[in-house]
Amino acid sequence: MTSPQMNSHEPSDFLDAGRRNTASRVELSTLMARTQSGYELDVTKLLCLANDADIELAAEALVEGLPVAAGFANFYVIYTRADAATVGQMNVWKGRPPDQTGSIGTTTLRIPTLFDFSKLPSTLTEKRVLDVMEAFLNRGPIGLRGPAASDLPRHMCGQDGDMRTAQTIVPGYKCPSNKLVARAIEQLPERYVYITSANLSHHRTGIEEPAHWKPAPLIFDFRHIVNMQLIRHASEDVAHKEYPGYAEMSTTVVSFHRHATVDGRPALRLERHGSMYVDDVRALLDRFDLGLEIAPSGQERLQERTYDFGH
User: What angle (nearest 5°) sits at the alpha carbon of residue 125, between those of residues 109 and 270?
Assistant: First the structure.
């Protein structure tokens, strides 16, 4: 197999940074040399979230500007730095438009800093929303969308009518990937990183591609990113058993920036029906006397990736 080439649309500053990083830290550039055989990758040789030293290496790679695929709850995501050039490059590598809005990865303590609670609809209070967030985080992975904090840059914000929104994707309290993100953010000027699902875009493949939940095929799909690093779950089986009731796919996303009521109660909105089943979302919200409105984008559940090999 010939060596994969970087995409021709890369920003020159990102290319230069990548070359400097590769030259200066050889141990962070050896991963792709071990993965050209695709599915035959020996995953035991990869960085592992069970090892603090490996987490430090992965965090350093992220800080230095390299994309890092990581175990995340019961599947995999890709993190990068959150500057516009790097987010745009990752979009291109995935096959997305370069200006597609980025989702935010951060630590659980920093989640509230991403939102402007003064812009909540009149039916919701800051405490009520924070209580709901806490309940979701205690269960597992979730996506949260709300009014964006004023200092977030445009490329990390969505737009819903006149409302600027921020969307964060987080694994819940018990995932060891939290330590990776925390260590990276300690060394970055921003309080967040960019996070995206570990799948190629339908713009590139022509079909909807579910997120990966195994490391070897993930690396095979992204073999065109020569400097991408990967830090795996200690055990895929254990990671999946940690989240009973969650499908192995991208997270469910709920939002709280729109005025919504269901059966006379204030409601949050299901923006994406992913790993957390809609009935479980509804039951959790019911504890807080909240309903669930289903957005058009949340009416059909995401697909779960299947693999036709035994490892």
Answer: 75
Residue 260 gets which letter from DSSP? -
| Number of domains forming the structure of the chain | 1
Residue 2 forms part of a structural domain: no
What range defines the domain where residue 148 resides?
A: 12-32+47-298
Residue 83's CB is within 10 A of a number of other CB atoms, namely 19
Question: Whole-prediction pTM value?
Answer: 0.86
Q: Which residue has the tokens 């200092």?
A: 151
What are the φ/ψ torsions at residue 104 (nearest 5 degrees)?
Answer: -110, 130
Question: Chain centroid to CA 60: how far?
Answer: 18
How far apart are alpha carbons 256 and 161 in whole angstroms? 14
DSSP alpha helices (H): ranges in the chain? 12-24, 52-63, 84-94, 126-139, 177-186, 202-205, 215-221, 236-241, 278-286
- By residue count, the chain amounts to 311
pLDDT tens per residue across span 175-191: 999 999 999 999 999 99
What does the pLDDT look like over 203-258, one tens digit per residue? 666 666 899 999 989 999 999 998 999 999 999 899 999 999 999 999 999 999 99
